[in-house]
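User: Please fill in residues for this 259-position structure.
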């Protein structure tokens, strides 16, 4: 970044002290250190800021264990914020606080309605194409509603069946040039363009920031070296406490370009 032009806003939400009680689907429960989690969260915010993003915190929700995973509550496309309807009923209370924040930003609002369910972690935007993981927290009705909402913006929604993985972006993410990276065996890879296979599980999670900047888990040692060799500016961040709760670097923010 040149220090003058910000690519936009990054919405975050500080971890609940009860995060350890959050929902787990595909991993075993292990002890979470809330002090370390908060320290890692602050460093994550600093990494976003170092790439020029202006960090905006949604009001904390200490009684909602999974609330730090703010990505799941809203999908932002252009000037439209689509409020999600999380597939896990215990998480639906997280949306209210996020709604207040995106409303204050002047974004247009829409929402996924019952019987549709949609988690933002299932939504991967790559240019004009929006891939939506279906079969876990997001159902076909939720994907269909999102498709209808995004069509006027020129976006095409394509559904991707999920295997033993929490969200689509738990398995596949994208580099800034649109190249998909991840673990294609965990999804219906036939619904996707070719996927660059990640060398390790945390390496499936890439958060494209702006220009050549990409944020990845510090646990993805091989991926950090591979991306750097490909001339990406890699920002490794330790998110170990969030990874214990099936989180990753994409889950902890919602990027709102151009705001």
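Assistant: Residues filled in for all 259 positions:
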């Amino acid at each position: 970044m040149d220090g003058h032009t910000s690519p936009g806003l990054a919405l975050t939400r500080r971890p609940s002290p009860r995060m350890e009680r959050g929902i787990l689907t595909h991993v075993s429960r292990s002890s979470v250190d809330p002090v370390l989690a908060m320290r890692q969260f602050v460093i994550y915010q600093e990494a976003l800021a170092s790439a020029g993003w202006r960090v905006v915190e949604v009001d904390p929700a200490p009684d909602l264990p999974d609330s730090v995973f703010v990505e799941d509550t809203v999908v932002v496309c252009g000037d439209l914020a689509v409020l999600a309807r999380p597939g896990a009923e215990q998480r639906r209370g997280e949306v209210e606080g996020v709604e207040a924040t995106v409303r204050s930003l002047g974004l247009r609002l829409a929402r996924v309605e019952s019987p549709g369910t949609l988690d933002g972690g299932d939504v991967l935007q790559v240019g004009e194409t929006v891939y939506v993981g279906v079969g876990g927290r997001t159902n076909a009705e939720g994907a269909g509603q999102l498709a209808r909402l995004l069509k006027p913006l020129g976006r095409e929604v394509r559904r991707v069946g999920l295997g033993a993985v929490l969200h689509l972006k738990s398995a596949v993410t994208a580099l800034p040039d649109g190249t998909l990276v991840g673990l294609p065996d965990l999804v219906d890879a036939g619904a996707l363009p070719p996927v660059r296979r990640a060398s390790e599980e945390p390496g499936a999670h890439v958060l494209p920031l702006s220009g050549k900047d990409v944020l990845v888990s510090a646990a993805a040692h091989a991926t950090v070296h591979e991306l750097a060799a490909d001339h990406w500016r890699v920002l490794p961040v330790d998110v170990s406490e969030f990874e214990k709760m099936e989180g990753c670097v994409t889950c902890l923010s919602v990027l709102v370009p151009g705001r």
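For context: Helices lie at 34-50, 95-104, 140-150, 221-229, 240-243.
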